[in-house]
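Write out the 3D structure for:
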Amino acid sequence: MADRSEGGVYPASCSGGFVLGGDKGLFFWHPEKPLRIDFIADPEPDLPDNRFNDGKCAPDGYLLAGTISTTKVAGSAALYALSPDLKLSKVVTGVTNSNGLAWSLDGKLCYYIDTPLRKVWLFDYQHGQLLNRRAVVDTQVIDASPDGMCMDAEGMLWIAFCHGGCVARFNPATGERMLQIDVPSRASTSVAFGGPDYDVLYVTSGQYSKAPHKDDGRVFAITGLSVGGLPAHTFAG
């Protein structure tokens, strides 16, 4: 696995393993056999500069995962849906940097970020299908790149802003920024709720060459929030 760049790791409930997404497609990985990976699909073998980036498991057991153009070719990437029976379909085209995903509390709506557009897009969701695309949050209120995203127990969106060193809470119904919290690393990349009561907001970070920091690459924990999250969903394959 050393020659493979992984963009995401997603728990799979039936196999007891994980789905990996990287520069050579999607694979199953089984912890009890750490050197073994099983190929699922590679939807973009003709685009060597593309790789899988962010993704998330849906409430109904589908996995949605998108690709990124590492050479920033606008519109050359896409968002894909993997069904529990391992059928892969393209659900959003014309993507450049596929990033954050989240679902409404009832599972009927899906929120999605294609980073360069600096908006949160909303779709009607059902069994891996994304319909009726519309923009609901304009993230340009923060001068940074919207990256990973999650939803809290009150149905509000949390977004990590890469190159912005912060996370922010938005109301998807109004587009309002409700709260912004700074973190030490400018390269804040994603967010997720965890802890025994799902009341800790974890923030991952990478590296930002224009503003390096000793805490780059660390995971930060934000506590004392007035709201928590919910357990993550798993892939049903």
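Residues 6-222 form a domain with the Neuraminidase fold (CATH 2.120.10.30).
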